[in-house]
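Escalated from tier 1: zinc ion holo job.
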Amino acid sequence: MPLRREADHWVWVGGPVPPGSDAITIGPVISVRRAAAGDAHLMRHEQEHVRQWRELGPARFLRQYLGAYVRWRVHGYGHRAAYRLIPLEVEAEQAAVDADGAAQTPPRPDRG
Ligand SMILES: [Zn+2]
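Tier 2 regenerated the structure:
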C-alpha cells in the first residue's frame, strides 16, 4: 500500500513529485520520493504545509503560495530563489528547524 496514514495526514512514498523537488504536499497528502522518505527534516517541513493547507483552505493556500511565487518571479528572481522566498515556504522551513530542535534528546548532564 503506497499511501499510509500518519497522525493527521497521509504519506505517499514514491508518489508524483515535481522535477527538482523531493516532496510535495497537496492538502493532507505528502507525496515524497522514495530516496527522501527517511529525511526527518523534510517530512517535518511537509507536515507544516499540511497544517497550512488545513488552516488556510485550498483556495487561500494556493492564492498565497502561487501569488508570492509569481510576484518574486515578476521582480526578476529565478525559480529557486522565488520558491525559497514564498512566505509559506519560509514558515514551513522555520517550523521544521524548530521541530528538529524539539526532537533532539536533551543532552544528559555530565555527572562524572
Ligand atoms: Zn515547502
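The first strand starts at residue 3 and ends at 6.
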